[in-house]
């Protein structure tokens, strides 16, 4: 098999389960001879897996001037703007990627289409089910982001999940999209 150029887009490369998945995926792809670049908005060497700081993996930190919140509020708005900024950077990179692996936030997918690569989205769990929708204000605030998640998730060439539970939840939340693997 011809070696592929692969970009992995992950918002915050710290220490956690999603980050371990990203690191292990990148290592497995590299071990198969592929070239892998991890793009992130934040990477703290003091709080990260060793492979991301010892040169084993190519980690590219892209700064965003968008804050992570506004006075502790509007986190989803800020995260969406940050991830879209990250996606613009990846799409504008001179590296021609064969595959872009998007982790966690689907709002990056439409801009990553400009990279002219196959887009793989790893859906941990639909964000719209994790956010509170109890008050009218919460429902009004979340409505455009929930719609954006529904629209952008469907833009991926392939969606994958990690369990039958998440697959069934995905089917219920996104009934018009192909069932992920």
What does this structure look like?
With 181 residues, the chain is α/β, with parallel strands linked by helices. It is built from six helices and six strands; from the N terminus they run βαββαβαβααβα. The chain has helices at residues 17-31, 75-92, 109-112, 127-130, 136-153, 164-173, and strands spanning 5-9, 35-40, 58-61, 99-103, 118-122, 158-160. The protein has a six-stranded parallel β-sheet with strand order 3-2-1-4-5-6, sandwiched between helices. Strand 4, helix 3 (109-112) and strand 5 form a beta-alpha-beta unit.
Sequence-ordered SSE layout with sheet pairings:
Layout: E1 5-9, H1 17-31, E2 35-40, E3 58-61, H2 75-92, E4 99-103, H3 109-112, E5 118-122, H4 127-130, H5 136-153, E6 158-160, H6 164-173
Parallel strand pairs: 1-2, 1-4, 2-3, 4-5, 5-6
């Amino acid at each position: 098999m011809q070696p592929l150029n692969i970009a992995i887009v992950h918002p915050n490369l710290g220490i956690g389960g999603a980050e371990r998945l990203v690191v292990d995926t990148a290592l497995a792809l590299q071990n198969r001879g592929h070239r892998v670049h991890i793009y992130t908005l934040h990477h703290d060497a003091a709080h990260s897996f060793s492979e991301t700081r010892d040169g084993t993996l190519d980690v590219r930190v892209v700064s965003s001037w968008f804050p992570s919140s506004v006075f502790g509020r509007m986190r989803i708005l800020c995260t969406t703007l940050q991830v879209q900024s990250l996606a613009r950077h990846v799409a504008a990179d001179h590296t021609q990627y064969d595959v872009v692996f998007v982790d966690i936030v689907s709002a990056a997918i439409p801009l990553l289409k400009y990279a002219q690569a196959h887009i793989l989205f790893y859906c941990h769990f639909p964000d719209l089910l994790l956010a509170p929708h109890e008050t009218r204000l919460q429902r009004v605030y979340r409505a455009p982001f929930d719609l954006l998640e529904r629209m952008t998730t469907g833009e991926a060439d392939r969606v994958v999940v990690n369990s039958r539970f998440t697959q069934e939840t995905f089917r219920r939340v996104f009934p018009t999209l192909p069932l992920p693997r």
